[in-house]
Amino acid sequence: MVKIIKLKKRIESFQLDIKGLFLQDKKVHGLIGNNGSGKSTLIKLITGLMRPDQGTIDLGGLRSKDITFTTQRPYMLHDTVYHNLIYPLMIRNQMPSKEETEKWLEQCGLTGKEQQFAPSLSSGERQKLSFARALIFKPKLVFIDETMANMDLESIGVFESIITNIQKEDPITWVIVSHQPAHIYNLCQEVHMMEAGSHLFSGTPKETGYFMRERHEKQWSY
C-alpha cells in the first residue's frame, strides 16, 4: 500500500496539502479533480520527480524502478519505435524477448512500424507506444496522467482492454488521472477526489457519484 501522510508542497501561489491518502495494492484507482487541483503535482511527488516540503510518502517497499507513468504528451526518444519500446528494459539491464516486443506492438497497433522514427508517429500512435513502453518491463505501480484525454473511442477501448486483462492475469496498482468520468467508472475500484490542493474524498465509483451529487445539490440550495 502507498501511504501519503501530511504531505505539503508549495509552488508559487499553489499549496498542496494532503492529510492522508492511501492507495491499496493491486487495485485500479482514479484520481479526479478540476485543472489546478493538484493531481499532476501529487503524481510528481509520489514518483520522485519533485520533493515534498513536508510529510511522508511510504511506497510500501516499492523501488523507483517498479514505478512508471505516462502523460498526455509523451516524450519520444529520437530513435525507432522498437528502441523506444525496449528502452525501459535496457536501462534495467533486461534483455527484450522477441515474443514480448511483438506482443506489445500488436496490442497497440504498431506492428510493421518497428523501424519507423518514433517522433514521426501520429499523436495517437505516440500515446500507444508510450503506454506499451510503460508496461513492457512489468511495473508494479503505474500512473496514467490524462493519457486517454485526446484519444478516439477505438484507442480508448484498446487501453481499457489491456488494463482489464492485466488485472485479471497478474494485477498491479494503477492510478488513472482523467477528466472523463467514463474512464474512471469503467475501470476503477476506488476514486480519490482532489480540490484546490487538498484530498477531498475517497470511495468506490458509486460512492463518489453520490458524494458529488449531494455536494452539487448543497451548493445550489443556498
UniProtKB/TrEMBL annotation:
<protein>
    <recommendedName>
        <fullName>ABC transporter domain-containing protein</fullName>
    </recommendedName>
</protein>
<dbReference type="InterPro" id="IPR017871">
    <property type="entry name" value="ABC_transporter-like_CS"/>
</dbReference>
<dbReference type="InterPro" id="IPR003593">
    <property type="entry name" value="AAA+_ATPase"/>
</dbReference>
<dbReference type="GO" id="GO:0005524">
    <property type="term" value="F:ATP binding"/>
</dbReference>
<dbReference type="Pfam" id="PF00005">
    <property type="entry name" value="ABC_tran"/>
</dbReference>
<feature type="domain" description="ABC transporter">
    <location>
        <begin position="2"/>
        <end position="221"/>
    </location>
</feature>
<keyword id="KW-0547">Nucleotide-binding</keyword>
<dbReference type="InterPro" id="IPR027417">
    <property type="entry name" value="P-loop_NTPase"/>
</dbReference>
<keyword id="KW-0813">Transport</keyword>
<dbReference type="GO" id="GO:0016887">
    <property type="term" value="F:ATP hydrolysis activity"/>
</dbReference>
<dbReference type="InterPro" id="IPR051782">
    <property type="entry name" value="ABC_Transporter_VariousFunc"/>
</dbReference>
<keyword id="KW-0067">ATP-binding</keyword>
<dbReference type="InterPro" id="IPR003439">
    <property type="entry name" value="ABC_transporter-like_ATP-bd"/>
</dbReference>
